[in-house]
Specification:
globular, two-stranded parallel ribbon, 53 residues, alpha+beta, 25% helix
Length: 53
């Protein structure tokens, strides 16, 4: 199994980062041996953007 479109903000990649809830998801996936990837690989205005120019 592989989890896609995982992020630390709301569903739109906006808003504050919720690292506490994200850690719960990461711990669950690790315990179940589920692979994952963080999402919103972009350079736009959203708080979930990985790059800032």
């Amino acid at each position: 199994m592989f989890v896609t479109e995982f992020g630390t903000q709301n569903y739109a990649g906006e808003g504050a980062n919720d690292f506490a809830m994200s850690q719960k998801y990461l711990d669950l996936m690790a315990s179940k041996k589920i692979s994952w990837v963080n999402w919103n690989f972009s350079d736009d205005h959203r708080s979930g953007a990985v790059f800032k120019f």
